[in-house]
Amino acid sequence: MEEKTGTIVLSDENGIETEFEIITRLVIEDTNKEYVVVIPVDEDEDVDPIALRIEETEEGDFLFLPIEDDEEFEMVSEAFDLANIDEE
């Protein structure tokens, strides 16, 4: 598991751009898939982190996709929780 922080700007389905802070980057070795956990930069209130799966297109671009499968979400959530425990 490797961490990488910074910010990314993502567009929603309406073309509205939002800047997100990357809290952590996770590689789930069992699946060999990559994920980022992000929060919106401009939020004043406490917000729940958002987990996104990273997929690379044939052209070499990266897509940040929402996790819609409950099992996949649980797996990423557990990995995120373990990464936070290791940091403490």
TrEMBL record:
<comment type="similarity">
    <text>Belongs to the UPF0473 family.</text>
</comment>
<protein>
    <recommendedName>
        <fullName>UPF0473 protein Clocel_1833</fullName>
    </recommendedName>
</protein>
<dbReference type="Pfam" id="PF06949">
    <property type="entry name" value="DUF1292"/>
</dbReference>
<dbReference type="InterPro" id="IPR009711">
    <property type="entry name" value="UPF0473"/>
</dbReference>
